[in-house]
Amino acid sequence: MSDTATPTVIRREEYAPPAFLIDTVDLEFDLVPERTIVKSTLRVRRNPDARPDAHLELMGEQLEFIGAQIDGQPYEHVRAHEHGLTVENVPDAFTLTLTGACNPEANTTLSGLYVSSGNFFTQCEAEGFRRITWFLDRPDVMSTYTVTLRADKAAYPVLLSNGNLVAEGDLPDGRHYAKWEDPFRKPSYLFALVAGKLVALEERIKSGSGKEKLLQVWVEPHDLDKTRHAMDSLIHSIRWDERRFGLELDLDRFMIVAVSDFNMGAMENKGLNIFNTKYVLANPETATDVDFANIEAVVGHEYFHNWTGNRVTCRDWFQLSLKEGLTVFRDQEFSAAMSGGDENEAARATKRIEDVRVLRQMQFAEDAGPMAHPVRPESYVEINNFYTMTVYEKGAEVVRMYQTLFGRDGFRKAMDLYFQRHDGQAVTCDDFRRAMADANGRDLAQYERWYSQAGTPRVTVTTQYDEAAKRYSVTLAQGYANGSPAARETQNGPLLIPFAIGLIGPDGADLPLTLEGEQRATGTTRVLELTETQQTFTFVDVAHKPLPSLLRNFSAPVIVEYDYSNDELAFLLAHDSDPFNRWEAGQRLATRELLALAARAGAGQPLVLNDALVKAFAHVLTDASLSPSFRELALMLPSETYLAEQMAESDPAAVHTARQFVRKGLAAALKAEWLAAYDANLTPGAYEPTPEAAGRRGLKNLALSYLSELDDPADAVRLATAQYDGANNMTDRAAALSALMNAAAATGSDYAKKALEDFYARFEKEPLVIDKWFSLQATQRGTAQRPVIETVRALMRHPAFNLKNPNRARSLIFSFCAANPAQFHAADGSGYAFWAEQVIALDAINPQVAARLARNLELWRRFTPALREAMRAALEQVAAQAKSRDVREIVEKALA
């Protein structure tokens, strides 16, 4: 609900079962863009488990009421109001028929039923169904649906809804109809319809049990050549879920539909997944390696929801992580398997590193801000604001820890029990935890705190080695990082933290591990269960003083504090057998150096590059035993946003100066090595989006990016120009353009001007590629003479820019505000003034998108005083003018 009503706080503790249940829903749509008539026939009965209520209260927004019937007779005791419909004095069981109208053409919120590119689409999660018809629009009301769609056949030849097509035919006056039945009970948020001029790539497969399934990827006709990868990703997802969890596709058909106007990435509506085009359309000329990987992951995510979210859904929106955290974990495991199979730990680690980078940069920051909340929130004003990194990414880590504790077999056993108990039900996070506990014979009462406590836990590690007794003691102490008051209010006791550890000997080899009291060593990595505020674990038969490898594979979403020296970090980077911790050592080393340089830059002191960092990077860059994808990740410096958040007072300008100094220094010191890496990782021949080829392109293009930092970037310009002109794929073309823009910013030359013009001319008719064109310019470095905000404002006047399209708004406005910190946080406050203008403008069109942008300033108190004051002024401006409760909740919490 995005309205101007006084915000109402919804609290988990106040949950009550619905007073009525709706067993069946029969919907009829007469689809007309400016006035669609919707007739809903509901079989309603009182809920025996709820408090009796004389009146039926249905939710509804922006609907025109036409009429109501009970049991086939007109019913007058119906009162329409701003937030719904009150049906008075109803019997215990009855059939309610409601007729109403909505205006899809005018619906710019993209929630409910709307029109995009002349086609009809829906988005009902979380509360969009109430914009289509009046209903008990809550996830614990589950019904079976029959849907009849009627529309002009020439304008809307394709009519789709959930489930199975049971009838279709022509009607008078050039119209036609299609009737769909979904045999599975579902909540209203999983309803979907699509109508328009679309075409499909089709494939028929057999499920593991031998049943034939029809798979379809529906797109606009000119995009049909970009659907093969999405189809392959869907087939891979189906096969993986059968193998890993024994879960089969349960419908006769499964459909994916791509739409260019969409607030989210995709939506898992039962059997009819609606996707942002960004996560469906791909061919080598238009999509990068990252795009190909993201499509595979998102297709997997939405397909996996068919069981973890659809067959078993949430009782209420506080349980959102029950489906989202669990399904993110499943899509992460799927992507890791696609990267290198279940046995290739190095390949799987690359995916793990990528996921943790996102978690630490975005979710840890969320934990430190005014929107901090537990994985299972206790209250909200606008549920759309709680589709957060905490619910999704930290929620996935909470699920992953079950697997860490019980192993893959124990986790699978618990998943089987979960479905056995709850298939077809709306349940809670506690129900999932109980299945994990019961299947594995464990008391997990303490584990509940992972769901109810906000903030990022901190584990402080101290060690002691007794050379004479050959005993090595590790003491772990848990607490919380300095978070927000919102987080501290929820913290009430120690967590159960699975803490994976290894010990590395002086020769760089892992030591066999025997804990005190054990008879023999069991492996070289142990998962210690930290359950108290402080615990000591002692390893015996340790012949030499080891170096600890802590929190291997990032076994819990915590911050580890241990005072490694620079030499020890370099040693771990060179020798740790755990790929994640090898990467982590390099990141710690780089972060330490960058923060020291940022402090000097902020104080106006000269900067000197540490030789140890150069040597460590040279070792990784030239180590051919490491995969190119791992080397690419290890050689990426921590982001400016992450670094600024590690400072007592965030100083984006100083961080930018320090990071650019290090990039330039590494480019100059290792120029020959970068050039060699570029040449060694060329991928001639036809483009292949395989993990191996993508890894080589990634390392090659990272080398090009570093080379573009040189004072004399002639080599980079030569390589980038040739790469741009000869590219047979978007990965190489976009990377070459980015390098040319880097070189132009470093030298003040116009190396990139011609390529930018050519890029637009080549891809003018490809919206997703033009999004990249906008984003590249919004995130470019800029100079004092050419601040990027001037470019962004000019691009907003470009004919291709459309504020109403979320992808286009994200490509330009969000990219500048979120991914160009040095320019956004300009000392003159121009970035904040721009942010305020755009939040207010978007709020009038699409509050969900506006609220996402509003979160860019929620950590304003962490910055230097001058920036803080400018941010406060911008927040107050938005607070005074914002109309939606989506945006008001964000800015009011930020200012509180």
TrEMBL record:
This enzyme catalyses:
Release of an N-terminal amino acid, Xaa-|-Yaa- from a peptide, amide or arylamide. Xaa is preferably Ala, but may be most amino acids including Pro (slow action). When a terminal hydrophobic residue is followed by a prolyl residue, the two may be released as an intact Xaa-Pro dipeptide
Q: What class of enzyme is it?
A: hydrolase
**Which gene is the coding source of this polypeptide chain?**
pepN
- Residues forming the Peptidase M1 alanyl aminopeptidase Ig-like fold domain are 455-563
All copies of the Peptidase M1 alanyl aminopeptidase C-terminal domain together span 567-896
Tell me the protein's name: Aminopeptidase N
Cofactor(s) for this protein?
Zn(2+)
MF (Gene Ontology): alanyl aminopeptidase activity; metallopeptidase activity; zinc ion binding
A Gene Ontology annotation in the biological process aspect, one of them, is: proteolysis
Under NCBIfam families, the record lists:
pepN_proteo
Q: Which UniProt keywords are listed?
A: Aminopeptidase, Hydrolase, Metal-binding, Metalloprotease, Protease, Zinc
Native organism taxonomy? Bacteria, Pseudomonadati, Pseudomonadota, Betaproteobacteria, Burkholderiales
Q: Per its UniProt record, what Gene3D superfamilies does this chain match?
A: 2.60.40.1840, 3.30.2010.30, Neutral Protease Domain 2 (1.10.390.10), Peptidase M1, alanyl aminopeptidase, C-terminal domain (1.25.50.10), tricorn interacting facor f3 domain (2.60.40.1730)
Q: Which organism is it from?
A: Paraburkholderia pallida
The UniProt function text for this chain reads:
Aminopeptidase N is involved in the degradation of intracellular peptides generated by protein breakdown during normal growth as well as in response to nutrient starvation.
Record's Pfam families? DUF3458 (PF11940), DUF3458_C (PF17432), Peptidase_M1 (PF01433), Peptidase_M1_N (PF17900)
Domain Aminopeptidase N-like N-terminal, chain residue ranges per copy: 98-190
Keyword Metal-binding in the entry? The reply is yes
Q: What EC number(s) would the UniProt record show? A: 3.4.11.2
Question: SUPFAM superfamilies from the xrefs?
Answer: Leukotriene A4 hydrolase N-terminal domain, Metalloproteases ('zincins'), catalytic domain
